[in-house]
Specification:
7-stranded mixed sheet, 7 strands, globular
Amino acid sequence: MAKRTREGTKGRAKARAAASQTMVASNATAASTVGPTIGDGPTLVVVFGDQLTLDARTIRELDPARDTVLMVEVAEEATHVPSHVQRTTFFLSAMRHFARDLEARGVRVRYVTLDDPANAGTFTGEVARALREMAPKPTRIRVVEPGEHRGRATVRRWSGEMGVRVEVVED
């Protein structure tokens, strides 16, 4: 996990304050929920490439019998910040190994590779595609709060675009 600076923490606090207008605290669980409250059906657990840990609350609390983890290799992320090809290769390899580790533990994983012809090219596009194609359809999305502003903004938009409850769990 990246080391947080004082300025980064202040910026993150501002982003949280702005998001609090649309996010409602869910009991005392340190999670925020956005969107309609729907029955207790399957959950789509979105795991970003910088959240590869079995200790994440979204992973610890998932139900392997009904929930699905979504991991996506997205071109916009691979090209957003200039990066050496070896670093990108290492990053994608770590994601693929983590997905296999989850599968070995009995977790259902929907993994979208960069070269998948159906890859929508964005996290939002892939979350929407997963919700359309999965049966039974998930009734909520759970995600650890992204550490970067662009990621947080993307996740906040999902509730309005996806039509399911979005639960953002603190990092």
